[in-house]
Known about the structure:
By secondary structure, the chain is α/β, with parallel strands linked by helices. It has helices at residues 45-57, 95-105, 107-114, 123-133, 135-140, 147-156, 163-166, 181-186, 200-203, 208-215, 270-280, 286-293, 334-358, 376-386, 398-410, 417-424, 435-449, 451-456, and strands at 2-7, 11-17, 23-30, 42-43, 63-68, 74-76, 86-87, 143-145, 161-162, 172-173, 178-179, 197-198, 205-207, 223-228, 232-238, 250-253, 260-266, 304-306, 324-326, 365-369, 390-393, 427-431. It has 2 domains: 2-198, 2-Layer Sandwich (Nucleotidyltransferase, domain 5); 220-460, ATPase, nucleotide binding domain (Nucleotidyltransferase, domain 5), CATH 3.30.420. The protein has 18 helices and 22 strands. The strands form 7 sheets. A 7-stranded mixed beta sheet has the order 16-17-15-14-20-21-22. Helix 10 (208-215) crosses helix 15 (398-410) and helix 13 crosses helix 14. The longest helix is centred in the C-terminal third of the chain and has 25 residues, at 334-358. The chain is globular. The N and C termini lie far apart (57 Å).
Amino acid sequence: MIVGLDVGTTAVKAIAIDDAGEVLTREEESYPLSTPQPGWAEQDPDDWVRAAEKALSRLDATTVGFSGQMHGLVSLGADDQPLRPAILWNDQRTAAECAEIEQRIGLPRLIELTGNRALTGFTAPKLLWLRTHEPDVYARIRSVLLPKDYVRLKVFGERAIDVADASGTLLFDVEHRRWSDEVVAALELPGEWLPPVYESPEIAGAGDQAAAALGVGVTGPGPVSVVLGTSGVVFGTLSEYRADPEARVHVFCHAVPATWHAMGVMLSAAGSLQWLRDAVAPGVSFDELVAEAEGWPPGAEGLLFAPYLAGERTPHADPDARGAFVGLSVRHDRGALVRAVLEGVAYGLRDSLELLRDLGVQPELGRLSGGGARSALWRTIVASVLALPLETTAVEEGSAYGAALLAGTRSGVFTDPADAAARCVRVRGRTNPDPGWVAAYTEGYARFRRLYPALSTLRA
């Protein structure tokens, strides 16, 4: 029994597969999230361990692979015990530290080395925050780990990190797949705090997005991963390191050795539909709302939605960006609002796809996952906006499934990650672009591109 364990923000999910990739069983254990101050997000690392041990105790695992939430900082003392709660990927307290990092290293050099600019979610700014605001904790640090790697240490006694997850620390030389001595020295951080780094198959681990892409079969040229979850992701592989000069997309090492990936992230994808339902139609099912949207044609008679409800990351690294409906008329009803939200999210995904194309990604199709992928209408809208056929796969737990494929690779069941995906990932359905909608959405996307600059001039 091969097990993939995903250490998420709300729960640990474990999925067991056989050597043909068939799912044998699933387990899940949840835990709380702490927000001690506005904009902060923390968790007790030992909650992850307890949850993982409970899930694994119900499985007869022969080998275990790990995926998990990226960027979180687990600060350990000399006894390998956490010195404080982990600071998570969605914590926003480090704006000043991000500015300091870009000033110390220089933004062009930082992007050249790490593939990214300094964002509040990343690990390095959290360490600088501790040094300034909790010097007593900082002085006792002897090592640091990311969330899933802390679980691995406690459950199996193995101290390690993979190149995919290390890429999200802002301390990693992404091109050369090793810790960056230059960045570590510039930030005056002890290099000995960092764990040994391995390729993903060597240690059976990857950050959640790289594992999820592997779990839907995105291991090389051809398909891109399109995630229509609370947030939205477009993920494509690169055969060589190539960073966006403006760092509008993330460039990380992939879980496939000698391969990188470019990834655009929008913060409110299916979360936008959740917001609309909660705001104007509480108690109404998503199926009912989408059925109302089906009564409107593409473009909803000029109605546009800007999906920046929680700020935005790609292509606008702007935490202060805000959402809007533009073009409302008396003819527009609730179904029109829903249609505009579905289309606005699809336009946001296209923003990421166009940036990936600029870096050399040449997609032939998309592998679609996430809760929004269950809607046939939304699938068709996204396929038509992206002008790409979209496939769905038989297993929906992408990150945990990818972790299981890495476990099978490490144990020798599969030759390499590409072999694991080829043997195990099965396409369940395909949605083609609607030829009659593509032209309308090409025009709609051109209008959408003008929304963000216009809205930015209206801020208070």
